[in-house]
Amino acid sequence: MFPIVRPRRIRSNNVIRRMVRETTLSPDDLVYPMFIVEGKGVRKEISSMPTCFQESIDKAVENAKDIHSLGIPAVILFGIPEHKDAEGTGAYADDGIIQRAIAAIKDAVPELYVITDVCLCEYTDHGHCGVVSEGEILNDPTIQLLAREAVSHAKAGADMVAPSDMMDGRVTAIREELDNEGYPDMPIMSYAAKYASAFYGPFREAADCTPQFGDRRAYQMDPANRREAMKEVALDIEEGADIVMVKPALSYLDIISDVREQFDVPVAAYNVSGEFSLVKAAASMGWVDEDRIVMEILTSIKRAGADMILTYHAKDAARLLGG
Ligand code: PBG
After folding, report:
1. Active-site residue, from 84, 247, 280, 315
2. Has 59 been annotated as catalytic?
3. What does pTM read for this prediction?
């Protein structure tokens, strides 16, 4: 007890602070999300997400080289097709936007690890993550399409698939189809505990996937539920998920921490669009120090238990970390 114990002794300068630091961040922890559109030479800034772009494949390839040279190991790709329809056929077309993007990026930067978001919402005209009938989002027909989509990504050369739809049984369906089609080594990172969140607002502009009716509460989780997340994660691991994700990150640090405690698989956290936009907006007003806020946010997500962080701040963070 004071005056014998003085916690400040080990905070007195930067060297000792470095030595006793419990959580460290590295570019190795980061995954950068990219939005791919049709066309050539397109690089259109997303108005609600400054410094993030919708890019055509040629521009995405340039960006991928940059990302790789900053020491970021992986990207996650979202495709925005020109044509949308009720079944989201663009999601599993062999020559779809994302399939061509995967091939081009892997060709130009083979060491960059390419993860793909597996979902229908960017490809359906109604903007829901599944097949719709009479205003209902149908589970079982949807998971068949997701499995086809995952296989088409594998064929195009993706390194990992990440289903984000929150349909029941989709990890089983995807695992079986990947195995049947000759991709038994393709890992699955499931968006296991994904909440129905207002923090996805800016992403829906970025990926042009706002639901045309209703919302996603019949498949994404209720933000009020904590124990239910453990059930979702356990199911996905049983079904064969190699990595499980919690999403969003900041309002769900307790969930990240619980998953880290209760399961022995790598945990990913998605620092989503709305979390990014809040920081950008406040920083642009001069109300917060952006660099410090970004490092504090990412460190807190890691401290809560995440092994990897999907974040739109990845490039800035890698630069700040000296990448
Ligand atoms: C698609 C998907 C969404 C996000 C990732 N994949 C949107 C949603 O579920 O509505 C959100 C990512 C972000 O906000 O950054 N299902």
Report:
1. 247
2. no
3. 0.97
